[in-house]
């Protein structure tokens, strides 16, 4: 088992730098969600297993083939398998879950295990993983922690989530060890529902413009 760092998911994340975390509680808004992401050149989305509609949402968002749809909050092998069967192109976990990592590597699918400590990062690195989720970033020291951890783990890139918001995400992205940032501040079902996505699209557009 080896990690293909040339996988399109890594390339797109490095380009877009934003990974929207989305928890679906109403499938009726997914067409609008896809439209918002595509019109703002953010063709990535992480659908979290924080609702029982996760698999259905992954399947629906994957149908057009225009988005790179991933599964988030994946804590079990069963969740990973069902997500991939429904079209997930990458998997994100809140911790280092060996069963999930091994399955994803066997399938050639990028996996971002959640890490917070040197032991976590080393456990991921032992699998050949070069990009790890850093979660929850704000609780575990934010950029100070990333800078410190990047000393011994000089060959690891970070995808911080947790406490990242519109006020601090650019600072994170300016760090050379950060490949991208994730969060629900990038895309929120609640905000999409307010006016069928108009304000959400404006918010996402402003985030993208701050990176350019």
Write out key terms for the chains shown.
212 residues, alpha/beta, three-stranded parallel beta sheet, 10 helices, 42% helix, globular
How would you sum up this structure, described in words?
By secondary structure, the protein is of the alpha/beta class. Helices cover 42% and strands 16% of the residues. It is built from ten helices and nine strands. It has helices at 8-16, 30-39, 54-62, 77-85, 98-107, 118-125, 142-149, 169-173, 189-195, 198-211, and strands at 18-22, 44-48, 68-72, 90-92, 111-112, 114-115, 131-134, 157-160, 181-183. It has a six-stranded parallel beta sheet, with helices on both faces. A three-stranded parallel beta sheet has the order 6-7-8. Strand 7 (131-134), helix 7 (142-149) and strand 8 form a beta-alpha-beta unit. Helix 9 (189-195) crosses helix 10. The longest helix has 14 residues, at 198-211. The model has no long low-confidence stretch (mean pLDDT 97).
Largest sheet: 6 strands, parallel
The strand line-up of the biggest sheet is 5-4-3-2-1-9
On the 0 to 100 scale, the average pLDDT is 97
Distance between the termini: 36 Å
Derived structural class? alpha/beta
- Looking at how many chains there are and whether they match, the oligomeric state comes to single chain
- Residue share in β-strands: 15-25%
Order of helices and strands: HEHEHEHEHEEHEHEHEHH
Count of runs of 4 or more consecutive helical residues: 10
Strand elements, count: 9
Low-confidence stretches: none
- Helix fraction bin: 40-55%
